[in-house]
């Protein structure tokens, strides 16, 4: 009895210690006291709960979960459901946390809060939105502002990742978190200018709220603003201001923020700016996307985009195996996604395996008909790059949902024209026009009133008519022109084309139609003739026309008193020109091509230079000895001797001198000396 009383007294003292440490926030000391209590009573439910809480407060989530799983008989789901779910959530076991919350018999406010966080991490945004609305409606405490912030974050995620139009929640944007989330929602809808204004407001509110705390330094404020600045840079990048975006991205990286998710997103965006340039910088930045914990900070689409860019970077750096490995992994994760197979095809094209790339794309198109249009467009591009224009046209015509589009019709007609296949080009026009006729018939089913054709339909008919007229298909063009004139009888241009076509086929019909042309009186326009003649353009045209017509030339000659005719300069004749001598008829040909050219004669002295045994001299060697000359030039000119100055100034440096025996060199030196002597005078 005495021992029991002593144990009870010790336990009471330990509980007092636990209570005091808990109030002071000293959970490490509290944990020690709890462990002593558990030594006295190992299955004490309250002590086990306190131990789990102390471990959670110290960040030991794995150990806390181990305690819960070890004492499942004592710590039932009703007792410790929140703590268990929270540990699983912090250990990124999101699916397990969801099961724990759903299995709890009683849904407390704490569990509902955690339930909203779990749904957000699982990207179940509709359920998450409903959970937070229920919390805000049924809760009244000091955490209302945090719940509204989370609610706005859910709306922003829906707008960004699911492209859902954000609804007006009626939240007063009094905090920088709310402003930031509102800006993200606007970015998702493409309203970039409005989003930038929201971010600027968020930056201002953030500085104001943090500057009120004296313990917060400027570095702390910049670290908090990093995510806002990152979003600003992203808007600049979307607007095409890549230099400004890149500068802001690099400023954020220099701050070394602790948020690995933010660093990964910024590094990925820099890689997208670099593309296939500045690959060394991209390889350094890609390391930031591999940091530990990144996969738990970003959404699935963000992680997928990073993996796509890694595969593209591997392709740009000629790491073919790595590119194939990454793209194959992406394709296994998202079999219906286009990008992995496009990256694989691009890599095969870089390896000059175009046929294999086309086969890969064809297999994907057969397996995924919903994405066949985009894949076939890529296949057609590859065929064009190979020079197989006809095969490219066949692929494009197999895309049924795009056959009638004006862009597709224009591309096919251009390609067929390039291949001089006019019949196929006309067939493309015909099929597109028939599609619009059938569409109009389906739309106006049961209606007997005349319905005008759509602008796109009329445009196709006009283009078809112009194309047929251009290629001499007058008879085929007549039916299209008649259809156009029927739609708009006041169209004079169409009527003129119709008359022109009939004039070559049926002149009588052309005369009948010409009666529908408006009279010349109705076509007269009020034009200021004087202003038109005095305009710069009219004067230029009139001058140009005057050179071509003979009448205007006679008028200009009659006005000799007013305009002076410019004298034509006579061509210069050569100095040795003799009018008595007949000029050489071959003077315009190069010397080598003239009939009397016999080649250059080799000089005797030039042939003798360098011949004979080593050390022997030739007859011309004495001429090369400067010491035997009668008068050597002075090393420096005498004052007043201008001729000497000009001669020495024209001496060629030794490494540029030619052999003294060459006649051409002597001639050039003599000419230079003459010029120098003349200049001296």
From TrEMBL:
Residue stretches of biased makeup (Low complexity): 627-644
GO CC terms of this entry: endoplasmic reticulum; signal recognition particle, endoplasmic reticulum targeting
Entry-linked Pfam families: SRP72, SRP_TPR_like, TPR_8
Superkingdom of origin organism: Eukaryota
Basic residues composition-biased segments: 563-573, 665-681
Subcellular location: Cytoplasm; Endoplasmic reticulum
Keyword Ribonucleoprotein: yes
Swiss-Prot/TrEMBL keywords: Coiled coil, Cytoplasm, Endoplasmic reticulum, Repeat, Ribonucleoprotein, Signal recognition particle, TPR repeat
TPR repeat ranges per the UniProt record: 226-259
SMART domains: TPR (SM00028)
Gene3D superfamilies reported in the protein's UniProt record: Tetratricopeptide repeat domain
GO MF annotations in UniProt: 7S RNA binding; ribosome binding
Region (Disordered): 543-681
Biased composition (Basic and acidic residues): 575-596
Domain Signal recognition particle SRP72 subunit RNA-binding: 543-599
Residue ranges of coiled coil: 94-149
GO biological process, one term: SRP-dependent cotranslational protein targeting to membrane
Alphabetical list of PROSITE patterns matching this protein: TPR
InterPro entries documented for this protein: Signal_recog_part_SRP72_RNA-bd, SRP72, SRP72_TPR-like, TPR-like_helical_dom_sf, TPR_rpt
Family: Belongs to the SRP72 family.
Name listed for the protein in its UniProt record: Signal recognition particle subunit SRP72
Source taxonomy: Eukaryota, Metazoa, Chordata, Craniata, Vertebrata
């Amino acid at each position: 009895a005495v021992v029991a009383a002593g144990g009870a007294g010790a336990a009471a003292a330990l509980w007092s210690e636990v209570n005091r440490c808990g109030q002071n926030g000293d959970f490490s000391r509290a944990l020690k006291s709890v462990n002593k209590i558990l030594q006295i009573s190992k299955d004490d439910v309250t002590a086990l709960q306190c131990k789990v809480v102390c471990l959670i407060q110290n960040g030991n989530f794995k150990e806390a979960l181990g305690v819960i799983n070890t004492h499942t008989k004592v710590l039932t789901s009703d007792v410790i459901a929140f703590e268990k779910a929270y540990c699983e959530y912090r250990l990124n076991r999101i699916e397990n946390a969801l099961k724990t919350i759903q299995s709890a018999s009683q849904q407390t406010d704490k569990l509902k809060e955690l339930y909203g966080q779990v749904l957000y991490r699982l990207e179940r945004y509709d359920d998450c939105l409903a959970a937070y609305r229920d919390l805000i409606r049924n809760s009244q405490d000091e955490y209302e502002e945090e719940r509204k912030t989370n609610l706005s974050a859910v709306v922003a995620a829906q707008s960004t990742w699911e492209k859902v139009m954000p609804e007006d929640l009626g939240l007063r944007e009094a905090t920088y978190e709310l402003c930031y989330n509102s800006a993200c929602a606007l970015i998702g809808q493409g309203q970039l200018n409005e989003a930038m204004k929201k971010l600027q407001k968020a930056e201002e509110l953030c500085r104001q709220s943090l500057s009120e705390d004296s313990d917060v330094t400027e570095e702390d404020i910049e670290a908090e603003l990093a995510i806002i600045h990152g979003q600003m840079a992203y808007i600049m990048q979307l607007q095409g201001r890549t230099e400004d975006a890149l500068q802001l991205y690099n400023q954020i990286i220099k701050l070394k923020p602790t948020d690995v998710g933010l660093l990964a997103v910024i590094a990925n965006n820099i890689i997208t700016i670099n593309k296939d340039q500045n690959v060394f910088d991209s390889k350094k930045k890609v390391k930031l996307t591999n940091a530990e914990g990144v996969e738990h900070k970003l959404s699935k689409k963000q992680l997928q985009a990073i993996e796509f860019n890694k595969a593209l970077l591997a392709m740009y750096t000629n790491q073919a195996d790595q590119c194939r490995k990454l793209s194959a992994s992406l394709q296994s994760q998202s079999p219906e996604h286009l990008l992995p197979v496009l990256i694989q095809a691009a890599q095969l094209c870089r390896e000059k395996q175009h046929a294999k790339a086309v086969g890969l794309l064809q297999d994907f198109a057969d397996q995924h008909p919903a994405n066949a249009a985009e894949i076939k467009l890529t296949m057609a591009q590859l065929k064009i790059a190979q020079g197989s224009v006809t095969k490219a046209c066949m692929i494009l015509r197999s895309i049924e949902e795009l056959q009638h589009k004006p862009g597709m019709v224009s591309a096919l007609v251009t390609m067929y024209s390039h291949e001089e296949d006019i019949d196929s080009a006309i067939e493309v026009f015909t099929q597109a026009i028939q599609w619009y006729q059938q569409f109009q018939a389906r739309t106006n089913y049961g209606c007997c009133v005349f319905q005008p054709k759509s602008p796109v339909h009329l445009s196709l008919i006009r283009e078809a008519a112009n194309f047929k007229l251009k290629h001499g298909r007058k008879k085929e063009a007549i039916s299209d022109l008649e259809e156009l004139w029927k739609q708009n009888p006041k169209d004079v241009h169409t009527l003129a084309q119709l008359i022109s076509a009939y004039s070559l086929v049926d002149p009588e019909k052309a005369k009948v139609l010409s009666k529908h042309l408006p009279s010349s009186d109705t076509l007269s326009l009020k034009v200021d003739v004087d202003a038109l003649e005095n305009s710069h353009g009219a004067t230029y045209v009139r001058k140009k026309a005057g050179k071509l017509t003979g009448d205007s030339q006679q008028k200009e000659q009659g006005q000799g008193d007013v305009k002076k005719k410019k004298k034509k300069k006579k061509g210069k004749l050569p100095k040795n020109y003799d009018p008595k001598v007949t000029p050489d008829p071959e003077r315009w040909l190069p010397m080598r091509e003239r009939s009397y050219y016999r080649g250059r004669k080799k000089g005797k002295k030039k042939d003798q230079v360098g011949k004979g045994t080593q050390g022997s001299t030739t007859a011309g060697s004495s001429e090369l000895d400067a010491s035997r000359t009668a008068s050597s030039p002075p090393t420096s000119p005498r004052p007043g001797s201008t001729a000497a100055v000009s001669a020495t100034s024209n001496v060629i440096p030794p490494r540029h001198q030619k052999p003294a025996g060459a006649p051409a060199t002597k001639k050039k030196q003599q000419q230079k000396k003459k010029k120098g002597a003349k200049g001296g005078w």
